[in-house]
Write a structure and sequence with these properties.
about 65% helix, 3 strands, 21 helices, about 575 residues, 3-stranded antiparallel beta sheet, mainly alpha, globular
Amino acid sequence: MNYDAIPADDSNDLLANEEPRSFLLERHLSLMDLIAVGISGTVGSGIFVLSGLVASQYAGPAAVLSWMISGVTALLSACCYAELSGRIPLAGGAYAYNYVAMGEIFAVLTAACLSIEYIAAAAAVSRSWGDKCILWLTEELTTSRWIITYLDGSATFNPLALVLSAGTVVLLLCGVKESKAATNFFTVLKIIVVSVMVFGAMRYVQPSNWTPFAPYGVGGIVRGATGTFFGYLGYDQITALAGEAKNAKRNLPLALMCEIVFVMTLYCAANWFLTGMQPYHEISAVSAFPDAFRSVGANMLAEFVSIGEIVTLPIVVLVTIMAQPRLQYALAVDGLLPPIFSEIDEHGNLWKGTLISGGIMTLVSAFVPFENLNDMISCAVLLVLSLTDTSVVLLWHEGPSSRPSLPFHLMSVFHFLSLVASLVIAKFADSFLGKTIAVLLLCAVAFTCFAVYRWCPRAAVFGGHRPHYHEQELHKEEGYFATPFVPLLPCVAVFVNWYLMVQLELLGAVLLLVCLALSVVYYFSYGGHHSVGNKGGWETTSTHEREVELEGNDAIIDRVTLDH
């Protein structure tokens, strides 16, 4: 498998006199803008939505460990994202990376998972916001109860979620530049609210509330870690905006790492003090911090946090759904979606794509309860992370000339063994036979990773052997973030992702499989026939032309040749 897929550096020198193409996305997002996007899309869904749920139902005071585990897991995959985002700064994020490394069919599956993540996650947060508004109004309105009855809707319809979703879509239709100002403002406001929550909770900590520390055992901690992955979704949204990032080579990796470390620290501190302030079995799964403050008599803090949640949580919806039109744009440019999704208006906005994806998100938020979305979202995210981790291995390791596809085959075996080993450890490790089989499977997993290292030598340059290019056209290796310990670190990340995935409810996995099956049907019925890069079907050699906007608004056409 040859990967002639990486846009060249030094594009400004090569095309210093080129005028920017009219259909390219403008690069206007700075490092701080990217960090703000990540924080805005992450902080809120974790602290406001999941803190109470994980602490009360899964892990108790050990929820802090759940957040640490999911945070470290996110950090492992973030290392892979950091390298890929700098080297392949294209709109679509993981979709673009997996297209380069594994071809169209895997890219389409990645796009399906990302669409679930962006649309369903935005809808889920909208739904949660509606529930929080009802709780707050119930506390505040002693009269006019008919308003609450009307807004509460039914078990399925949530009118407040509909209003919020529609409002965020309208703001996005005004353009990312306008949305950027709102994002930066609400990011600062959100950090203030969360800081007040954390420091306010410190005053009311009772150490006795941390006993027992892990009432649901190790299984509860791991199950909590799987559920909390929903709270780290912001960092891959950063990469989806790569087509609009300034100095993407430097800013994307830096924004990713800063966002993950900051958010993980904030989550752990917030959950630690929450469980110290109130016994875990009394923590509300819907309104954790406001109810906890009321339980200790801190009514002013409860009021402040309640209002703060209601005011700042909508920005999570805005940032999450912002990534979806960029993903659709990348697919449409590649011919995998109809051209309407790549149309950019005179102001540089993806108006039609935003309207379509926003409309779908609005309907889902209004009619689908949050608990039916969480596991499917987490499952989709973990699968995307695993595929992206695999892409780093495939782009750095080559098979021998007699077996060029060996790295792909070995990584396929690694995924299968990781899934089976995770299932055995999670479901059958209590028996002696289960432990024995688990040890044997873990040995096989480790050996497969070693086989990649031993029999698939590291390529001289990122992307592997590319015979159609001259040396001066290849990527220079200086200045890029490099994923450490390849293939070990990506393989560890893949295994951990699968282990977390098997902790989820079966319904979430089944729903994801149905969506992926529909995506495959769509690809072979439409996408594969209209693909720019694969006019004859994905099994054959394909040539993919993509416009890549680089620094200084210069443009370069990157011809991608993928031999399958």
